[in-house]
Design brief:
By secondary structure, the chain is an alpha/beta fold. It has one domain: Metallo-dependent phosphatases (Purple Acid Phosphatase, chain A, domain 2, 4-Layer Sandwich). It contains five helices and twelve strands. The longest helix has 17 residues.
Length: 247
């Protein structure tokens, strides 16, 4: 069994970040003992250097290896430079175990809210996914911006500008999981054999309606993928259960 925790949209700043909720989430996730944590962007609210410095101290509280990609808020105020200095590469590939490949994409642009992958990164993605198909790897692609519109989030404004091309690549390569954040609302779509999961906000007060702070947990076995929606300090729901793609 492989356990992956998916967190998103901390929005660390004096006005938008709830430290008590974050500490509760750290306790809960550490107790789960996940194999890794994937953070899909908007670590900070304004991309300020001091926000990133503070974020590094908070993220060190997680006991599992954590891998992050930037969000649109992280790319503000030269934050796209600070991210690489204090957090790590903005796009990356890692292999886990014998047959897992996880790809992080940078969908942010400096001081722009809209998402964009772009041709060079798209070509790199296709090459990595070709290798996943050849090697029969379980594939996960993480990015901040959603590739499909999310229900109950109002007027669509910030979906990827090249979402159609990216979605075609993801589905034709039968990527197992595509995970994102950005809209602060949890959701699951299944397109062909690809499961597309959006996480809510872990600990910010920027919530829509009656939504609560939450995170996603993936329990992946040889036969199936169980997806749990965990409300911080509250209940845990089985959000979806799907058979794994054939190896």
């Amino acid at each position: 069994m492989t356990i992956i925790a998916h967190i998103s949209d901390l929005h660390l700043s004096p006005l938008t970040f709830d430290e008590d909720l974050f500490m509760q989430a750290v306790t809960e996730i550490n107790e789960l003992r996940p194999d890794m944590i994937i953070l899909t962007g908007d670590i900070t609210n304004d991309g300020y250097y001091r926000e990133f410095k503070q974020a590094t101290r908070y993220l060190e509280m997680f006991e599992a290896p954590l891998f992050a990609i930037p969000g649109n808020h992280d790319a503000r105020n030269l934050g796209y430079q600070t991210f690489e200095e204090l957090i790590g590469e903005k796009s990356w590939k890692l292999t886990f175990g014998e047959n897992y490949t996880i790809i992080g994409l940078d969908s942010s642009s400096p001081d722009v809210d809209n998402g964009h992958i772009g041709s060079p990164q798209h070509m790199w993605l296709e090459h990595q996914l070709d290798e996943c198909v050849i090697n029969n790897h379980f594939s996960i692609v993480a990015l901040h911006h959603h590739v499909i519109s999310i229900p109950q989030t109002g007027r669509e404004r910030n979906v990827l500008s090249d979402a159609g091309d990216i979605l075609k690549t993801l589905t034709t390569h039968e990527v197992d999981l595509v995970i994102s954040g950005h809209k602060h609302v949890a959701n699951i779509w299944k397109i062909n054999n690809t499961i597309v999961v959006n996480a809510g906000s872990l600990c910010s007060n920027k919530l829509r309606g009656k939504n609560k702070n939450s995170y996603i947990v993936y329990d992946i076995s040889e036969d199936e993928i169980k997806i749990f929606l965990n409300y911080v300090g509250g209940e845990k729901l089985l959000y979806g259960k799907y058979p794994r793609n054939s190896l």
